[in-house]
Amino acid sequence: MFGVSSTDTAPRNTPESSTGPLLVVGLGNPGPKYAATRHNVGFMVVDELAERATPMPATFSVHKRSNAEIAQIRIGGRTVILAKPRSFMNLSGGPVKALASYFGVEPADIVIVHDELDLEPGVVRLKFGGGENGHNGLKSTSTSLGTREYIRVRMGIGRPPGRMDPADYVLRPIPQSACADLAIQCADAADGVELIARSGLAIAQNTIHSR
């Protein structure tokens, strides 16, 4: 259902010096039923980024043209649009494409934050391009954008125990015992996004992957 990519290396065509707006989309499912599940770690990271905004935390509001909740912040002088699609995971691409079109953001300046079964819990990895490895949110995003050439922030959640269906695993509430470690992981991912905005993907990778 999900998988790991072949490389985390930033290719030469990654816009390391881009100064245009950065669109950061957390993947997840809408509604309180899914809020505390592993499939919604993307939402958790963009919430973390909104909380960090200065001089005061940013507030999300509905962007009707894209069917997403968005908040606009500044990181290192760069405009960053934070987004949480209001569609379900397998339809994430529609809101991503609509937001990119509305704000004039090129695919290479889109950051998708998502859960990753083939990384251990707590691990954060940043990459540009590559396959979707069965992740329905990434599949929808690539199809809607017409390209796989966008940045991914991969949030490790580990494989389900025993013979548990991966779909059941990602949609079950995260146990209380894992919440402290998850908060650290979300902070690391948010650090990665901030570094991408300020300094580009290569520097962000070097910093986050060494932790």
From TrEMBL:
<feature type="region of interest" description="Disordered">
    <location>
        <begin position="1"/>
        <end position="22"/>
    </location>
</feature>
<feature type="site" description="Stabilizes the basic form of H active site to accept a proton">
    <location>
        <position position="115"/>
    </location>
</feature>
<comment type="similarity">
    <text>Belongs to the PTH family.</text>
</comment>
<comment type="function">
    <text>Hydrolyzes ribosome-free peptidyl-tRNAs (with 1 or more amino acids incorporated), which drop off the ribosome during protein synthesis, or as a result of ribosome stalling.</text>
</comment>
<dbReference type="GO" id="GO:0004045">
    <property type="term" value="F:peptidyl-tRNA hydrolase activity"/>
</dbReference>
<feature type="active site" description="Proton acceptor">
    <location>
        <position position="39"/>
    </location>
</feature>
<keyword id="KW-0694">RNA-binding</keyword>
<feature type="binding site">
    <location>
        <position position="136"/>
    </location>
    <ligand>
        <name>tRNA</name>
    </ligand>
</feature>
<keyword id="KW-0963">Cytoplasm</keyword>
<feature type="binding site">
    <location>
        <position position="90"/>
    </location>
    <ligand>
        <name>tRNA</name>
    </ligand>
</feature>
<dbReference type="InterPro" id="IPR036416">
    <property type="entry name" value="Pept_tRNA_hydro_sf"/>
</dbReference>
<feature type="site" description="Discriminates between blocked and unblocked aminoacyl-tRNA">
    <location>
        <position position="29"/>
    </location>
</feature>
<dbReference type="Pfam" id="PF01195">
    <property type="entry name" value="Pept_tRNA_hydro"/>
</dbReference>
<keyword id="KW-0820">tRNA-binding</keyword>
<dbReference type="InterPro" id="IPR018171">
    <property type="entry name" value="Pept_tRNA_hydro_CS"/>
</dbReference>
<feature type="binding site">
    <location>
        <position position="34"/>
    </location>
    <ligand>
        <name>tRNA</name>
    </ligand>
</feature>
<dbReference type="InterPro" id="IPR001328">
    <property type="entry name" value="Pept_tRNA_hydro"/>
</dbReference>
<protein>
    <recommendedName>
        <fullName>Peptidyl-tRNA hydrolase</fullName>
        <ecNumber>3.1.1.29</ecNumber>
    </recommendedName>
</protein>
<feature type="binding site">
    <location>
        <position position="88"/>
    </location>
    <ligand>
        <name>tRNA</name>
    </ligand>
</feature>
<comment type="function">
    <text>Catalyzes the release of premature peptidyl moieties from peptidyl-tRNA molecules trapped in stalled 50S ribosomal subunits, and thus maintains levels of free tRNAs and 50S ribosomes.</text>
</comment>
<comment type="subunit">
    <text>Monomer.</text>
</comment>
<feature type="compositionally biased region" description="Polar residues">
    <location>
        <begin position="1"/>
        <end position="19"/>
    </location>
</feature>
<keyword id="KW-0378">Hydrolase</keyword>
